[in-house]
Design a protein that fits this description.
Elements lengths: L2 E6 L4 H10 L5 E4 L9 H10 L2 E4 L3 H9 L7 E4 L11 E2 L8 H6 L3 E3 L3 H15 L10 E7 L4 H9 L7 E3 L9 H8 L6 E7 L5 E8 L9 H11 L6 E3 L18 E8 L4 E8 L3 H15 L11
Parallel strand pairs: 1-2, 1-3, 3-4, 4-6, 5-6, 7-9, 11-12
Antiparallel strand pairs: 7-10, 8-9, 10-13, 12-13
The structure holds NADPH dihydro-nicotinamide-adenine-dinucleotide phosphate (NDP) and N-acetyl-L-glutamyl 5-phosphate (X2W).
N-acetyl-L-glutamyl 5-phosphate binds next to strand 9.
Catalytic activity: N-acetyl-L-glutamate 5-semialdehyde + phosphate + NADP(+) = N-acetyl-L-glutamyl 5-phosphate + NADPH + H(+)
Function: Catalyzes the NADPH-dependent reduction of N-acetyl-5-glutamyl phosphate to yield N-acetyl-L-glutamate 5-semialdehyde.
GO molecular function, one term: N-acetyl-gamma-glutamyl-phosphate reductase activity
């Protein structure tokens, strides 16, 4: 038996990545719309209602419109946009976030795929909050660098079309990035972290860093204690891996071209300063890899089918 999947926005940056992961699958039949019909409302409505699963790879407003087109109680949705990540009725599609999150995704009708930056931040911070090492009132910062495909077709054109020659560009300097609410909510924090992202001249890949004073922790702890909490949270996980080896260098390319994520704890025990680091691919675990993982879980298939780990 196969499940019918429609990717709305299938020729965008994320949509193409999802299609690549699904098109050779024998357990999945893709519903496709040709170039002339891919933005036609009637054609999309028909495809959406014909599908068992719809994956939305659209700008936020178009994603909301697509959800409103569902006129049956059967079609299940994974939304890759920001539109529903803190919305009621939607299940947050980060399977490793909580011990029962995969089970919740498996039973959900509406699943919101996490943002790429929150994927790194939450993987590093949520286990520490859950273990009581970080209080829910912790005041955190997060700095991150993304490959330019993170900005979709428009940013790819900007970097590859000669519109910018920059190698590295911090942005969201007004500390108003759209991912901050999602980080706050799903980490279980009272205050959103100070989030300062940057984009680099690399097509794909991502480094997310959370600096911490050990004195910020709710009880006395060493770097090893922090590492142990993260290592045990992801013990045996096939997608999120804790790197036990000493970290001397991290590169944006480390997990690029994969659907996995690697977490590290490093720092200076003598000064009591820690650095939590996640590397992932903004288009992999940060987008398409997570969407396919969610689809697999919802359809009762192998959660990592079609993923590159
Ligand atoms: N790039 C990334 O790393 C990540 C992206 N996301 C999210 O995924 C979603 C897609 O982003 P991304 O792939 O980067 O963006 P792109 O701009 O590369 O692709 C968006 C696609 O949606 C199409 N589209 C726009 N409006 C409509 C509509 N009304 N009906 C049908 N198709 C439409 C566009 O068509 P056209 O080609 O004609 O413009 C385009 O092909 C966004 O919400 C983004 O925030 C999430 C995580 C990471
Ligand atoms: C480099 C870059 O511009 N990145 C995008 C985030 C990509 C992502 O995660 O997308 P969504 O939350 O939009 O789904 C940004 O900062 O807006």
């Amino acid at each position: 038996m196969t499940v019918k999947v429609f990717i709305d926005g299938a020729v965008g940056t994320t949509g193409l990545e999802i299609r690549e992961r699904l098109e050779s699958r024998r357990d999945i039949t893709l519903i496709t719309l040709d170039e002339a019909r891919r933005k036609d409302e009637a054609a999309r409505r028909e495809a959406i209602n014909d599908a068992d699963y719809v994956v939305l790879c659209l700008p936020d407003d178009a994603a909301r419109e697509a959800v409103a087109m569902i006129a049956n109680d059967r079609t299940r949705t994974v939304d890759a946009s920001t539109a529903h990540r803190v919305a009621d009725r939607w299940t947050y599609g980060f399977a490793e976030l909580e011990p029962d999150q995969a089970e919740r995704i498996a039973g959900a009708r509406f699943v919101s795929n996490p943002g790429c930056y929150p994927t790194g931040f939450l993987a590093l911070v949520r286990p520490l909050v859950r273990a009581g090492l970080l209080g829910s009132d912790a005041l955190l910062s997060v700095n991150a660098t993304s490959g330019y495909s993170g900005g979709g077709k428009a940013m790819i054109a900007e970097f590859e079309g000669g519109e910018t020659s920059t190698a590295f560009r911090p942005y969201a300097l007004g500390l108003n990035h759209k991912h901050a609410p999602e980080m706050r909510r799903h980490a279980g924090l009272t205050h959103a972290p100070i989030f300062q992202p940057a984009v680099a001249r690399a097509y794909r890949g991502m480094v997310v860093e959370v600096p911490l004073h050990l004195a910020q922790l709710s009880r006395r702890a060493t770097l090893t204690d922090v590492a142990e909490v993260l290592a045990s949270a992801y013990d045996g996980n096939r997608v999120v891996r804790f790197a036990h080896e000493a970290t001397t260098m991290v590169r944006i390319e480390d997990d690029a071209n994969t659907d996995r994520m690697t977490l590290r704890v490093t720092g200076n025990e003598a000064t009591g300063q820690a650095l939590l680091i996640a590397t992932l691919d903004n288009l992999g675990k940060g987008a398409a890899g997570a969407a396919v993982q969610n689809l697999n879980i919802m359809a009762g298939l192998d959660p990592v089918a079609g993923l590159t780990l």
